[in-house]
Write a structure and sequence with these properties.
Blueprint: H1 3-7, H2 16-31, H3 56-72, H4 97-108, H5 112-115, H6 118-128
Length: about 140
Amino acid sequence: MDGDAVRFKKPLEFGHEGYVAGLKNRLTRHFKDDDGDAPESKALVIGLFGEWGCGKTAWLKRLEAMFEEDLENPQGDSLTVPVFFNAWRFEKEEHLIVPLLKTAQERLAGYRQRQGFGPWLTRLVQSIIPRGDPRRADRGQPG
């Protein structure tokens, strides 16, 4: 377990834990399939704004850790796999969607059989990555 994973298993200080728990509950409720709508049709955008160094990443990493805790102790048949993507690492990337989807594909690899979305995500990623790119699973072979 890396240092971040251990560090963010502990609750945040200064009253922030309650806010992060509230955000987690809001996300969980929003995408729960109680109303019959497909979860992918229920768009949600959340902005987390603040000065440099004020704790935005700490909030996100703690939120990730909370969802990870749910994965370790699953309840019911729903599954939320957090995918932490640092866009700054790819600021020079021509098509940011490629590393984003590749990161999601790698993170979700362990949950493929459980939910059946792994093959779908793999096909999506492969359809976006240009032929000949070393990141393609088929290494650019015709097919």
